[in-house]
């Protein structure tokens, strides 16, 4: 498309993908960019509500030092990585007692397999960190479990599982390896192992709120889109403020919902109907006997233990009045429902020595939009990428890369650099 810097561009979604896309367009000189957000806040799954004067995380929690694009945007926004230092211990899902994450007996072999995997990623799978999934290596379309077994590095799953499954991204026997490595590339994983993490005192949400203030036009919140019609080389967006005309639209909102309000083509509807997501729940509560440190429960990070606490987050240390946040995955087949998850959280809290006093916040997310191994093998991403620009429409957001901050931002930059 011609680079008409005066074209009217609509971005649907005010999360990291949408806000960063608006900024990258502005940097390139585009003057008429409107971000529409359904909620009364920005940030999407960067959700940092306040309790008793402190910010807590109900969605994204942390980053690592190699979140290069995120850190650049933080500088633009004037935001520092000034949050609490994170630490953790590991606990048994059966007894609640502290355990070793990796036993001393296993450690030499674990190190050898991690080194082997690092070499494979740097050579055979070079390019796996590039934005998106165009021409993904066939091995990476297999589940992460099968990938590790195929490459004879099964113990690597013990390392990768804690920052992956615990934070809502699914089970290794179901999720394609391409997704796992998009988020936890080798360098990122080593930062997690060394506990080299960054957090924000005012929460992840503040990054996007403050970046939005740097835009020429502030995102419009509380905006419900009733209809999107793409015709006559224009895009017509019907909202609670009336009909609006644009030249181009970028969807960063959930693509699986596009058919509910947009004039989707048969191909769009077919492809986006293949998107799956995880049933991820976060419960924040005040507790008696507050823990001294955050806890991971690796034994609960399997499908058979759906609904049980995988991690609890002690954000502000030495503060007995603080909130503790508990994280669980529901069952993909919905055999473990909302009530089961809440009951299991209460039971697990007691196992780890805590009594929940008051539930202060509860969030159930449609988390980590993705497609399964079969769709990945069948070229789902190549097909969607092939539609970019048709009907003046572009697609970004979590499903196009990964449901974490850095990958979402990098993909928005990729789309802007590629097409604008």
Kindly describe this structure:
The chain has 13 helices and 16 strands. The protein is globular and about 65 Å long. 46% of the residues are buried. Strand 8 (234-239) and strand 9 form a beta hairpin. Helices cover 30% and strands 21% of the residues. Strands 6-5-12-13-14-11-15 form a seven-stranded mixed sheet. It is of the alpha/beta class and 420 residues long. The model has no long low-confidence stretch (mean pLDDT 96). Helix 2 (68-77) packs across helix 8. The protein has three domains: 9-76 and 201-275 and 371-419, FAD/NAD(P)-binding domain (3-Layer(bba) Sandwich), CATH 3.50.50.60; 101-194, Guanine Nucleotide Dissociation Inhibitor, domain 1, CATH 1.10.405; 277-369, Alpha-Beta Plaits. One of its GO terms (molecular function) is oxidoreductase activity. This is Protoporphyrinogen oxidase. Residues 17-360 form the Amine oxidase domain.
């Amino acid at each position: 498309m011609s680079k008409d810097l005066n074209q009217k561009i609509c971005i649907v979604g005010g999360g990291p993908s949408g806000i960063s896309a608006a900024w990258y367009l502005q940097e390139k000189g585009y003057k008429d960019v409107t971000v529409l957000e359904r909620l009364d806040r920005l940030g999407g799954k960067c959700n940092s509500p306040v309790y008793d004067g402190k910010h807590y995380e109900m969605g994204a929690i942390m980053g690592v030092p190699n979140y290069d694009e995120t850190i650049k945007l933080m500088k633009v926004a004037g935001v520092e990585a000034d949050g609490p230092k994170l630490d953790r211990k590991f606990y048994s899902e059966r007894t609640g007692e502290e355990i070793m994450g990796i036993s001393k007996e296993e450690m030499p072999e674990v190190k050898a397999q991690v080194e082997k995997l690092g070499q494979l990623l740097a050579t055979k799978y070079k390019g796996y960190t590039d934005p998106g999934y165009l021409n993904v290596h066939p091995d990476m379309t297999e589940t992460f479990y099968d990938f590790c077994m195929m490459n004879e590095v099964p113990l690597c799953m013990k390392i990768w599982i804690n920052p992956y499954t615990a934070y809502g991204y699914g089970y290794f026997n179901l999720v394609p390896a391409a997704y796992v490595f998009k988020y936890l590339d080798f360098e990122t994983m080593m930062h997690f192992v060394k506990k080299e993490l960054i957090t924000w005192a005012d929460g992840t949400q503040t990054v996007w709120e403050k970046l939005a203030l740097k835009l020429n036009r502030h995102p419009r919140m509380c905006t419900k889109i009733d209809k999107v019609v793409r015709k006559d080389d224009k895009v017509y967006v019907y909202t609670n403020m009336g009909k609006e005309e644009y030249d181009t639209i970028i969807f960063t909102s959930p693509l699986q919902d596009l058919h509910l309000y947009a004039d989707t083509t048969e191909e769009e509807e077919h492809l986006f109907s293949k998107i799956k997501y995880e049933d991820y729940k976060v419960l924040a509560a005040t507790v008696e006997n507050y823990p001294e440190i955050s806890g991971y429960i690796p034994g609960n990070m399997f499908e058979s233990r759906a609904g049980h606490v995988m991690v609890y987050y002690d954000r502000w240390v030495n503060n007995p009045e603080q909130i503790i946040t508990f994280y669980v995955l529901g069952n993909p087949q919905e055999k473990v429902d909302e009530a089961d998850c809440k009951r299991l959280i209460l039971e697990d809290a007691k196992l780890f020595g805590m009594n929940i006093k008051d539930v202060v916040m509860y969030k159930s997310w449609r988390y980590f939009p993705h497609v399964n191994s079969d769709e990945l093998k069948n070229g789902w991403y190549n097909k969607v990428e092939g539609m970019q620009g048709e009907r003046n429409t572009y697609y970004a957001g979590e499903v196009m890369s990964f449901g974490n901050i850095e990958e979402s931002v990098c993909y928005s930059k990729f789309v802007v650099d590629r097409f604008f």
